[in-house]
Design a protein that fits this description.
single chain, about 70 residues
Length: about 70
């Protein structure tokens, strides 16, 4: 009975870690796109801010869950 909770926690921690890494990649991509633009493009800036917000929200959740990355 107690092993199931650990298994579920591990499964959701893995999902959170994968999602965190994906959103970090999206955020970095959005930063690169914005860096190479010559003019002020509101749509690109909005996409970057959305990606940044998602990443930091997931980062905060991972920190609360005391998620550790094993290399």
């Amino acid at each position: 009975m107690f092993g199931r909770k650990r298994k579920l926690k591990r499964e959701f921690d893995n999902r959170l870690l994968n999602l965190l890494l994906e959103t970090k990649d999206d955020w970095e991509q959005a930063k690169e796109i914005e860096k190479y633009l010559n003019d002020y493009d509101l749509e690109v800036m909005i996409q970057r801010k959305i990606a940044e917000s998602k990443y930091f929200h997931l980062f905060k959740e991972a920190k609360e869950r005391q998620l550790r990355v094993e290399l």
